[in-house]
Amino acid sequence: MSEILEQVRQLIETSGHSRYAIWKATGIPQQQLSRLMSGQSGLSLDSLERLLQYLEHEIRIQKKRKEK
Predict the structure, then answer these.
(1) Residue 67 domain-assigned (yes or no)
(2) At CB < 8 A and 24+ separation, what contacts does 51-57 make?
């Protein structure tokens, strides 16, 4: 699982929100959340954005620093 998806999975686990509550609030199907949590699949960018908005988090994109 990618680093971002691992962080998202941890956010879900520690959020105190049930998958049912997340599904109802975001429209992301429970089966898709289950596959995400088990590492079987990821999320579309749209779903990821809705999920992070619900969990009150965001992703920022930065230019990568050059390694020396």
Answers:
(1) no
(2) 51/8, 51/12, 51/22, 51/26, 52/8, 52/11, 54/17, 54/22, 54/25, 54/26, 55/11, 55/12, 55/15, 55/17, 57/11
In the structure, what pLDDT confidence band is assigned to residue 46 with cuts at 50, 70 and 90? very high
Which pLDDT score is estimated for 64? 86
The pLDDT value given to residue 53: 96
Within a domain: residue 14?
yes
CATH number for the domain harbouring residue 8: 1.10.260
Record the pTM.
0.82
